[in-house]
């Protein structure tokens, strides 16, 4: 919908102007003429690294980077120190969020103590203060442990959010077990390490009635399994990430900024993921924003830490390479980034919004990121769409 030169997609002028102060209304009415206004994006999979690893990212730097990418709500993963596996440990993170966050930050609680997969964390104690439970970064290896977690989560009215990975199938791999790995002498990670555990979890979710969500799917078999489970009525949703939709292992370079887990897979896998976002099998796109220090990402594909940053480039990557190429509509992209994640995770839409100039382009320069992390496979890419403003709870939290 257009109004006074502004295009509203997924929200209305009335929604936006009802929460704006006079200064923000003035900006919207004049200096942001002909821009697009979207509801604030919501990322259900980010790593802000605090407490424990603030040299990689902090609540302040991560939430500021999120605002610059158009996000007003994020869910932070529990691979921290201390791991939020108890009320006491979680309290440290909640206090940092209260002090530093410039947008809405919702923490996950760990599924198991220390994310070690051996003993259930204090799910009951943490339930009121976490968005869901996840051991992201590690798959829960024991069938019985995952069944127990699902039953406890169901009783608490909470979701299990799973990083799916069978440790016995990894064999020291660190990129996709495909042509690039074979041609360049690298150890590969097979797709089965992902989809075998998804199959296990889908069976358990169907058995227990747990509300279940799958993190960062990357393989064509994962898409097929989830599509079939949805047809059977399993209460499952899933996400993928921007890099899996616009790149494959043919784009790899001998650089740590191309190393993430799960890895970039084949062109066939990428095409299956695209089909998944087109037909609704894949419910949302999350960035898996995972910052590390320059030193940790400077050791090539074999030696670098897993993880890339992406929350400041997500919308423009997807707009440029999916919307402008006619793969999905702009409205569908807003559903994947803003509407669907909030619906599934029970995060209020509120009246948060973000304003973009889709006619403006830029070259990705990691040195300009607000995130402490700079490792991105999109460095040097020319992208269309520039965030001009993000408003959260009526406050301007980012302005270009």
Walk me through the structure.
This protein is an alpha/beta fold. The protein has a single domain, classed as Metal-dependent hydrolases (TIM Barrel, Alpha-Beta Barrel). Helix content is 35%, strand content 17%. It is built from 14 helices and 15 strands. The chain has a six-stranded mixed β-sheet, sandwiched between helices. α8 packs parallel to α9 and α9 packs parallel to α11. The longest helix is centred in the middle third of the chain and has 17 residues. It is globular and about 60 Å long. The two termini are 23 Å apart.
Question: In a nutshell, what does this entry contain?
Answer:
The chain is of the alpha/beta class and 400 residues long. It has 14 helices and 15 strands.
Which terms summarize this structure?
single chain, 400 residues, alpha/beta, TIM Barrel, six-stranded mixed beta sheet, 17% strand, globular
Reading the helices and strands in chain order gives EEHHEEHEHEHHEEHEHEHEHHEHHHEEE
Number of strands: 15
Distance between the termini: 23 Å
Identify the strand order in the major beta sheet: 1-2-3-13-14-15
Number of domains: 1
Given helix and strand content, the structural type is alpha/beta
The proportion of residues forming helix, as a percent range, comes to: 25-40%
Briefly note the CATH topology name. TIM Barrel
Kindly report the name of the CATH homologous superfamily.
Answer: Metal-dependent hydrolases
Which term fits the overall shape? globular
CATH architecture: Alpha-Beta Barrel
Q: Over the alpha carbons, how many angstroms does the gyration radius reach?
A: 20 Å
Q: Tell me the strand percentage band.
A: 15-25%
Would you identify the regions where 5 or more consecutive residues have pLDDT less than 50? Answer: none
Number of helices: 14
* Mean of residue pLDDT values: 95
CATH class: Alpha Beta
What does the main sheet amount to?
6 strands, mixed
């Amino acid at each position: 919908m257009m109004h006074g030169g502004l295009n509203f997609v997924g929200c209305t002028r009335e929604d936006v102007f009802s929460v704006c102060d006079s200064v923000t209304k003035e900006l919207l009415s004049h200096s942001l003429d002909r821009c697009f206004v979207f509801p604030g994006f919501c990322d259900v999979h980010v790593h802000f690294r605090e407490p424990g690893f603030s040299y990689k990212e902090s609540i302040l730097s991560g939430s500021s980077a999120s605002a610059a990418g158009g996000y007003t709500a994020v869910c932070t993963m529990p691979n921290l120190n201390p791991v939020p596996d108890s009320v006491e440990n979680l309290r440290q993170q909640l206090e940092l969020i209260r002090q530093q966050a410039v947008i809405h930050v919702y923490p996950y609680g760990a599924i198991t103590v220390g994310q070690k997969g051996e003993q259930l964390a204090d799910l009951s104690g943490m339930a009121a203060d976490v968005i869901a439970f996840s051991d992201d970064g590690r798959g829960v290896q024991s069938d019985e442990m995952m069944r127990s977690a699902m039953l406890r989560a169901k009783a608490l009215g909470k979701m299990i959010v799973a990083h799916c990975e069978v440790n016995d199938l990894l064999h020291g791999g660190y990129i996709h077990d495909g042509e690039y790995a074979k041609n360049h002498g690298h150890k590969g990670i097979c797709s089965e390490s992902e989809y075998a555990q998804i199959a296990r979890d889908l069976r358990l979710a169907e058995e227990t009635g747990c509300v279940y969500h799958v993190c960062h799917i990357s393989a064509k078999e994962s898409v097929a399994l989830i599509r079939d489970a949805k047809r059977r009525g399993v209460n499952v949703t899933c996400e993928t990430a921007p890099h899996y939709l616009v790149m494959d292992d043919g784009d790899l370079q001998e650089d740590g900024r191309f190393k993430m887990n799960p890895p970039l897979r084949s062109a066939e896998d990428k095409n299956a993921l695209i089909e998944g976002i087109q037909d609704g099998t894949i419910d949302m796109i999350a960035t898996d924003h995972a910052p590390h220090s320059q030193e940790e990402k400077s050791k090539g594909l074999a030696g670098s830490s897993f993880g890339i940053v992406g929350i400041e480039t997500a919308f423009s990557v997807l707009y440029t390479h999916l919307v402008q190429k006619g793969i999905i509509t702009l409205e569908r992209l807003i559903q994947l980034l803003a509407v669907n994640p909030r619906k599934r995770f029970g995060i209020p839409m509120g009246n948060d919004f973000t304003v973009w100039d889709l006619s403006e382009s830029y070259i990705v320069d990691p040195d300009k990121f607000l995130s402490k992390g700079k490792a991105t496979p999109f460095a040097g890419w020319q992208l269309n769409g520039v965030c001009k403003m993000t408003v959260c709870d009526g406050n301007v939290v980012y302005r270009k």
